[in-house]
Write a structure and sequence with these properties.
A five-stranded antiparallel β-sheet has the order 3-2-1-4-5. With 149 residues, it is α+β, with helices and mostly antiparallel strands. Helices cover 40% and strands 23% of the residues.
Length: 149
Amino acid sequence: MQNKALIVSTMGSQCKILVMRAEACGSCEACNACGAKPSTYVIENTLQAKPGEAVMVEMKDADFFRRVGLLYVLPMLLFVGGIVLTDLAQKPLGMHAEALDLVGGLLGLVLYWAVIRKVDRKEPDTPAMRMLYRTTLEETSSNCCEVQH
């Protein structure tokens, strides 16, 4: 996945970039109507770009989908899984307490918290994003929500 980014500042071999998540907008052509805001990241400045310059950055699709899975899919699965397992555990006992199902779901989220903390300790602090090449902010694109300067 590639996006245009604006160099905000540089700090040694790293730089702070501003990226508009183009995928979030698709082709709805209602820019800023949904309140989508650009994201700020600190990445390696492999192009020695200066503040105010625009660069094209890339994140591998596999890294992107892995992070989406960890942040959105896994907690939902553990929450729903906790509810289902609690409900199934109650049936042989002749019980059906929805409050216990909710507790099971919350226990699933506690399990998610433990898993994500372990993963977070292993992951580097820098995003899995890299610079590809310099570009211009004026470069035209079919995407309405590009970084504006």
